[in-house]
Design a protein that fits this description.
Layout: E1 7-11, E2 23-26, E3 33-34, H1 41-55, E4 62-67, E5 70-76, H2 80-90, E6 98-102, H3 108-111, E7 118-122, H4 127-135, E8 139-143, H5 147-150, E9 156-161, E10 164-169, E11 181-182, H6 190-203, E12 211-214, E13 219-223, H7 230-238, E14 246-249, H8 255-263, E15 268-271, H9 276-284, E16 288-291
Helix pairs in contact: 7-8
């Protein structure tokens, strides 16, 4: 772990709360971005989360929505407008405001679906999109650093505690053929594998205990930060849309979790690990389970 030095950039209006002082500082690895708007402490935290997820899908058309640093919807589409509609559909209420990150140039059609409650971050914008943003008082940020490289700008995570300063490597885990293992008799279809990888990538950025339900490259439900009943919450939220979907979890699940999921007709699971008892149940109900060997806890 190398030493990190900070170069003062500017004082922010306040921190997470108005009574907290905060400043923006530069390190040896700071992304290149530009905006004509004043960004708050919470804006910068939310932008980081949204851009991190968007960077997982840098080579396709995708939209990511976060609010209060929590993920509310992620989707891929035929174009950005299509992806945005799908992402909004995961949580329409919270999607009315928050951070929206895109993986490609934002055009007029996409811009017209956004409002003044949003802060947009994208690699570029068409002139027509900027005109709409300015007319509707929508703030936007242009990320000049390629999304493909974004994850490389955070090598270490630092948490200062009274017991000492904790430093750990950033979780940059990727799936490979060596750790992606089908452990059930029923084997996944190609479309299921693609949805499983999509859901797993989103779950990496969702606060534990994370449950992500997805289908057709669209999140149907996201449970995050719950101490118990995460699966039940996700299933209640997704309801009938969970039929033939994939469920990703950042931790091994219980039999109760598995039963709740199959009652909502989830067809495939992607998990860090699984017990033989759950594998037997999955075989009984002809469900697919894939293990990764990795937990992706986010505290």
């Amino acid at each position: 772990m190398e030493n990190i030095s900070f170069e003062f950039i500017k004082q922010l209006e306040h921190g997470s709360n108005k009574q907290q002082l905060a400043s923006l500082n530069k390190t040896h690895k700071t992304v290149d971005y530009e905006t004509k708007f004043e960004l708050t402490y919470n804006d910068l935290i939310g932008m980081t989360k949204a851009a991190e997820i968007a960077s997982e899908f840098y080579d396709v058309k995708g939209a990511v929505i976060t609010k209060n640093s929590q993920v509310t919807g992620v989707a891929l589409g035929t174009d950005l407008s299509d992806a945005l509609v799908k992402a909004i559909d995961c949580n329409p209420i919270d999607a009315l405001s928050g951070i929206v990150a895109f993986t490609d140039c934002v055009d007029k059609k996409t811009a017209m679906q956004l409002n003044a409650g949003h802060l947009i971050i994208a690699p570029s914008y068409t002139d027509d999109a900027i005109k709409i943003f300015d007319k509707n008082s929508i703030r936007y940020v242009q990320l000049n650093t390629p999304l493909k490289e974004f994850k490389n700008y955070i090598d270490e995570e630092i948490v200062i505690t009274p017991f000492g300063t904790l430093v750990q490597e950033k979780n940059k885990t990727e799936l490979s053929k060596d750790n992606f293992k089908v452990v059930t008799k029923t084997k996944p279809e190609v479309e299921q594998i693609e949805d499983a990888i999509f859901a797993w990538k989103v779950a990496k950025y969702v606060k534990s205990n994370a449950i992500v339900v997805a289908k057709n490259f669209k999140t149907l439900a996201i449970a995050q930060g719950l101490q118990s009943q995460s699966t039940e919450f996700a299933m209640n939220y997704s309801c009938d849309t969970a039929k033939e979907s994939v469920m990703a979890s950042d931790l091994p699940i219980t039999i109760s979790d598995f039963n709740a999921a199959i009652q909502n007709r989830v067809s495939m699971f992607i998990l860090p690990g699984v017990t033989q008892e759950i594998i037997k149940l999955a075989d009984k109900y002809e469900k697919v389970i894939v293990t990764t060997g990795y937990t992706t806890c986010l505290h």
